Amino acid sequence: MDTRLLQVGHSPDPDDAFMFYALGKGLIPTPGYEIKEILADIQTLNEWAKEARLEVTALSAHGYAWVSDQYALLPYGSSVGDMYGPKIVAHGKMGLGTLKEKKIAIPGELTTAYLVLKLALDEFEFDVVPFQDILGKVQSGEYEAGLIIHEGQLTYQDYGLEEVLDLGHWWYETTALPLPLGINAVRKNLGANSCQQISQWVKASLEYAVSHREEAMAHALQYAGGVDVQRVDKFVSMYVNEDSLELREKTRKGLELLFKLAKEKKLIPESARVDVVE
C-alpha cells in the first residue's frame, strides 16, 4: 500500500519533544502515512505555516491567528499557562512605565509572548533575538530587558536576572482565564477524515508520553540545552498537563478572548478564528 508523507513540525524544546516523542519515533501506528519529524524554532514554524509548508505543525497561538484559514487547531498538545507564562526579565525590578522606555529583546513577532506583551504595554521598542540568546544578551547589558520563553522561564536567575513581569500572571489578573501559548494544527486540505485521524494520533502520542514518562523524558532531555533534569521535569509539567490532554472550555475561551482583544488593536487579521478539529 502506498504511503503519504506526513511532515510533523515542532520546536526543539523539551515539552514539544516530550509530546511528539511517540509519534516521531514510530511508536504510534499511522497506517497510510510515513511520519517525518521536522524541528525548527517556533518563529520559523509560524512563518512556514503562512506558506502551508507542513501538514502538521506546532504553532504559537499568535501564529495560528494568521493561518486559521488554512490550518485547523488540534484539541491535543496545547501549551497553556494558568497564572504563569513567558516573562520579562532584567537586572532589576522596574515598573511597566519604565519598561516601556527600554528596548526589549523578543524571540519573534509571531510568538504569543510578543502579542500579549503588546496588549500589556501597547508601544515599545524591540529587537528580534533567537530565544536561546536572549538571557545572555540581557546579562551582558546589550539589552536592558528580555522576553523569555521555553526553559528560560526557569533559568533566568542563573544569569543574575530578576522577573519584571510574568505575562501569564498579568493575563490571568486581566481576564481570569488561562493563557494559551502554543497549539498544534493540521492543514485543512488533507480533508476532514484525515484531520480527525491525525488528531487521534497526536492524542495517542501525548498519552504514550504521559504513561511512559521516564522514557519520554529521557528523549526530551536531549533538547534541554544543558538544563538539569529537575528543572526540565518541572518545565515539562508546566506545559504538558490537563490542558494538553484536552482543549478545556476555559482554555478555548482564553484563546477566543486573546483573538478578540488583539483584533481590537489591529494586531491580528480580522479573519482569525478558533477552528478546532472536532
Molecular structure report:
- The protein has 278 residues and is α/β, with parallel strands linked by helices.
- It folds into two domains: 4-80 and 179-264, D-Maltodextrin-Binding Protein, domain 2 (3-Layer(aba) Sandwich); 87-175, Periplasmic binding protein-like II (D-Maltodextrin-Binding Protein, domain 2, 3-Layer(aba) Sandwich).
- Helix content is 42%, strand content 22%.
- It contains 13 helices and ten strands.
- It has helices at residues 14-24, 42-50, 61-65, 96-99, 112-121, 134-139, 152-155, 167-175, 192-211, 213-220, 229-239, 242-245, 249-264; strands spanning 4-10, 33-39, 56-60, 71-81, 87-90, 103-106, 125-128, 145-148, 162-166, 179-187.
- It has a five-stranded mixed β-sheet with strand order 2-1-3-10-4. A five-stranded mixed β-sheet has the order 7-6-8-5-9.
- The longest helix has 20 residues, at 192-211.
- The model has no long low-confidence stretch (mean pLDDT 93).
Short description:
The protein is an alpha/beta fold. The protein has helices at 14-24, 42-50, 61-65, 96-99, 112-121, 134-139, 152-155, 167-175, 192-211, 213-220, 229-239, 242-245, 249-264; strands spanning 4-10, 33-39, 56-60, 71-81, 87-90, 103-106, 125-128, 145-148, 162-166, 179-187. The chain has two domains: 4-80 and 179-264, D-Maltodextrin-Binding Protein, domain 2 (3-Layer(aba) Sandwich); 87-175, D-Maltodextrin-Binding Protein, domain 2 (3-Layer(aba) Sandwich), CATH 3.40.190.
